[in-house]
Amino acid sequence: MRVALLGSGRGSNAEAVLLAQQDGRLGAARVIGIWSDLPGAGILGLGPRFGVPAAFLDPGPFRTKFSPERERAWADALRTAGADLIVLAGFMRVLKAPFLGAFPRRIINLHPSLLPAFPGLDGIGQTWRSGAAEGGCTVHWVTAEVDGGAHLGQARVARRPDDTQETFAARIHEAEHRLLPAVIADLARGASR
Ligand code: GAR
User: Which H or E run includes 56?
Assistant: First the structure.
């Protein structure tokens, strides 16, 4: 299963996936490349470190979506690379028809809340401010509804009395780093059956 990692940020979850691959915990899944919509994103630095191609690809002029023409260019690039599974690991852009149609049921997203609670931006901040007794993270199939596709895995993180938003967020990130590689390995097992 050929995995494409897409991200806009520091790439700690992409790093967790690459470390899992290095340790043989990713099963039949293999990362074939890293793509970012931001030229300076930390995630691109993982390419040279792990010996994986990493590239910035122009998303067009908008901040949270692609222009239709650039969305087609992204889908073409990933198809040409032969991606079987597209993993949104901190990719902060909404995908629409041209992209979704090119990869039906082959795109997954990591979100830092217990969906369906707190979709959209800043899942951890939303959870923290709500006063909920627990937060967590979810990996789900990507559909046209933002953060709305069927769940593939979830990890719960209890809020402690002495937590600050930072300590709570740090445990959610640790949970993400375990969950995302585990879900990819599960999907790879399913794909090879
Ligand atoms: C992660 O917490 C991920 O859940 C979140 O961005 C962070 C990326 O961190 N994604 C979203 O909020 C998507 N809506 P990373 O760049 O260190 O992996």
Answer: strand 54-56
pLDDT at 192: 57
Annotated catalytic residue: which of 111, 140, 173, 177?
Answer: 111
C-alpha R_g of the chain: 16
Q: Output the residue whose Cα is nearest ligand 1's atom 9.
A: 90
What are the structural domain ranges in the chain?
2-191
Query: Cα of 112 to ligand 1 centre, how many Å?
Result: 7
pTM: 0.97
What CATH number is given for 2-191 in this structure?
3.40.50.170
Known active-site residue 111:
yes
Residue 181, ligand 1, Cβ within 6 A: no
